[in-house]
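Two entries, shown back to back:
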Amino acid sequence: MTTAPGPVVVALLADHERLIAAVGEMRWQEWGQPPEPDDQAWWVNVTAREAGHDQLPITWVAIDQRGDAIGAVGLAPYDLEERQDRSPWLIGMIVRADRRGAGIGGRLVAQLENWAGAHGYTRVWVATGGRAVDFYRKCGWGIYETIERAAGDVTTVLTKAL
């Protein structure tokens, strides 16, 4: 169920360091099971490292009217070890479950795309799976390839020209 939308601000996580732990916890709740790391502290530490201010990696956070983190998205030089020849990559896209479907994810992706284009990038990439593939396609991204990973899971790589 989606909570009624209130004012949402999208800002650099580096400018709101107090929200790093909350974003790390959201990511851990979503992805913190094998084959991914299952230690919440690992997710918070990675989120802190990805909270650059003016260079990659960089993260944006969606903040509600109470000042709480309700979503985040990052941009990094690469995401997949086997695809380091392409850059930059959208990483760590998350919207709190009770706020999904309210356009927050689209706002985060648009902010990332605008920043990347303004900083000279002409194309962005994302590696994902499941329902997220349809989300990115709705945001104008196209499927580039499907990769079977070493762990046996399938990853879909999408891209968007800026």
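entry 2 starts here
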Amino acid sequence: MTGVEIHDRAPAGPLAFDLRDILAALGARPRTLSWTCSGVECVGDGAGELHRIADSGTDVDGATLARLAASISQVIDGDFFGRREPGAPPDIIIKAVDSSLWEVFADADALAAIRRRFADVRPAAYDAG
């Protein structure tokens, strides 16, 4: 699966974006997918709900993920798998990596949208582990 790393930083050094910005860059597509979240560590008003969803392995619709992402200050770690149907291979994989970068794995159109929205985008190798 082809992917990119996003490294955009704010002037003070932390990442200048979060999950909500990645979802927005992808347009309407994330709202059409069913999302599985795992290994999520985050802070913000919606953190408790997102932690419960990730810990339970429950799928959520794209509107729910977008709502939660808007209520999170920062995702520190986590994997987000967007699928057209539960159990199908993911169409989009979004990974938060230790507050240092984000990875997005998807088709060429989605990756082009990421490149248009973010300034510091680099190739990423998919690691299934």
